[in-house]
Amino acid sequence: MHGGGPTAVINASLYGIVDEAKRSGAFVHVYGSHGGPAGMLSGTYIALDEIDDDVLAGLRDAPGSAIGTGRDALGGHYPQMVEVLVKNGIDVVMLTGGNGTMNTCALLQEACREAGADIQVIGVPKTMDNDIAEIDHAPGYGSAARYAAQSVGEVCCDVHSMPIHIVVVEVMGRSAGWVAAATALAEQCGQGGPDLIYVPERAFDEEAFLADCKRLIEEKGGGVVVASEGLHDAEGNPIVDPIMEVERETYFGDVSSHLANLIVARLGYKARSEKPGLLGRASMTLRSERDVDEAEEVGRAAVRAALDGATGVMVGIKRVSGEEYAVATDLIDVERVRLIERLLPDEFINEAGNGVTQAFKDWAAPLVGDLPQFVSFL
Amino acid sequence: MHGGGPTAVINASLYGIVDEAKRSGAFVHVYGSHGGPAGMLSGTYIALDEIDDDVLAGLRDAPGSAIGTGRDALGGHYPQMVEVLVKNGIDVVMLTGGNGTMNTCALLQEACREAGADIQVIGVPKTMDNDIAEIDHAPGYGSAARYAAQSVGEVCCDVHSMPIHIVVVEVMGRSAGWVAAATALAEQCGQGGPDLIYVPERAFDEEAFLADCKRLIEEKGGGVVVASEGLHDAEGNPIVDPIMEVERETYFGDVSSHLANLIVARLGYKARSEKPGLLGRASMTLRSERDVDEAEEVGRAAVRAALDGATGVMVGIKRVSGEEYAVATDLIDVERVRLIERLLPDEFINEAGNGVTQAFKDWAAPLVGDLPQFVSFL
């Protein structure tokens, strides 16, 4: 079952799960829940083991979630879900998602135990935001980070060609600035990278921002600013007023648009806003190959864990120390992950709160992979 | 000299010009004007013939403009520019740009003639907006179109996974809807393509838009809407009020943000806005290979035209009739191109004004190239 928004590699994890399960010969059937929790609750399944291998392999290159996903609250429906699982003879449930989905894992496992149902529940990490606790990084992050870094690198070339405006690029990440921070790697492209980066881990100070922009204009004539969608002020209020609340969700206005307007209105200088938004988690061409491989491997590790009898765990990714980048998977009690948001640590954010440190770049570079270097004669 | 905003292939045309000029052996030097008209006026040149061939070849893969570009008004400075060109021994001037730049070509040539200076002036077409008159399509368009089409195709997969909102994607094109129209090709990706497309060639009717969106929500639970940045109402007023005028330019607010807010406020339904903006003209990974090849060839044709003694012309691209797509270059009097905006013809827009026709898709498909088909089990 997939929970929450897709990533560029959520289907790669699904491929790893299905392929490993089929290879093991230990499972009678492998089903996908159609559309997340709602599908699991109603017993609406997709028979993944009956799909041709070459079609299944296409999952590695498919954006979105090939079995759908959902954000429905399961509320008090856990006992009912257990009944449906038992009725359908399901022995193992795997949930791919973020820390909210790991909470679902914990609640579902509790409900199974209470009902005396012998069902294993295993979490598979997934988030472009990279805010899952206890792991080095989450599948989906490397691709979102690569998309943001190379796109910003290309935009830097464009702006460098004709520095007549400040371009504000908004990237996803409501509570954590991991993706915004990754745009610092755009400097690899050869045009200096973004001039300023603002992350939600620091309170946003409008006057400091305008002073930063004014200096940028005076020194370079223009430049590139990256802003997380979740910026808020010192009181914790989002810098753009919520436009409306729909059901449980708040609809926020665009941060990039707001900041560009602010530059125009307060500094009298040209500014543009760009907000690739969903493009950043759906792009197949700008994703990280390492991320695809790791996402698939995390899916395979979940199947191996199931065969070992594990339950109530999430597959983790830890770095193996050594000169070359290497990772290994492990198993983490979902209790240690559920609903905990992992934010950028202090040592990854610069002192002025408008950029990142070398330590962050060193950490993020292997996840993003090498970026192309672009020719310029300026 | 480059004029106006870059495209994904403006440097490919520059590569064609420099390489063809060097191969011809007919030129003593090949210079690039540093930063558009301002560089040409001040005699600030980049010696392109002195750059290593392998570095030069990198121009084919470089976003932005490698020699810079500019939007400065030349105003009454044409006689002065002629003086600078004569003083520096320049015999041929090539200007890469849109219909505004072709106007510059015409004015510069006139100034040369009045000054008795024997200088050839040749225009090289370039615009992601595709609004240059007299040609089948402009270099830069195919890449912007491919970026928009595949990106929207990927977003359609994302939204199809969890249809809980309407996503409004804004694409560039202030007067002409060529890029917005190209997103219809996203249907090749296998998730239906965008549900609604609005172009500036039709007056935007807010009530009709909301009725379209309401139907979309009722029928599918959500979907993807594409909107040109230049939408205006029946009186010709932009649908988003200008925020500020800076020098000669008007700064408009974001159309996607405005429309998403409208859906939330008026329909009480979730909506997101995405505005890739500059990313769409800077992306190297999602450009059209055919566009790169044609842009290079247009540059080479400009050099051949110069060797034939032509002046006051722009290189054109026309389709050669036949079963397979093929083009040929020709030469067009710049007088027929200057300042004329080429809009989408009626036969390319559907009757309701919220989509395109098959005739448009047939025309655009070879420029964009085949898009990947994505696997989904929904």
Automatic annotation (TrEMBL), chains A, B:
Record: residues binding diphosphate: 5
Regulation of catalytic or functional activity: Non-allosteric.
A GO BP entry: fructose 6-phosphate metabolic process
Residues engaged in binding substrate: 127-129, 172-174, 229
Keyword list, A-Z: Cytoplasm, Glycolysis, Kinase, Magnesium, Metal-binding, Transferase
Catalytic activity: beta-D-fructose 6-phosphate + diphosphate = beta-D-fructose 1,6-bisphosphate + phosphate + H(+)
Domain of life, per lineage: Bacteria
Subcellular location: Cytoplasm
Domain Phosphofructokinase: 1-285
GO molecular function: 6-phosphofructokinase activity; diphosphate-fructose-6-phosphate 1-phosphotransferase activity; metal ion binding
Pfam families tied to this protein: PFK
UniProt keyword annotation of Signal present: no
Signal peptide interval: none
Cofactor: Mg(2+)
Described purpose of this protein according to its UniProt entry: Catalyzes the phosphorylation of D-fructose 6-phosphate, the first committing step of glycolysis. Uses inorganic phosphate (PPi) as phosphoryl donor instead of ATP like common ATP-dependent phosphofructokinases (ATP-PFKs), which renders the reaction reversible, and can thus function both in glycolysis and gluconeogenesis. Consistently, PPi-PFK can replace the enzymes of both the forward (ATP-PFK) and reverse (fructose-bisphosphatase (FBPase)) reactions.
Listed name of the protein: Pyrophosphate--fructose 6-phosphate 1-phosphotransferase
Organism name: Collinsella stercoris DSM 13279
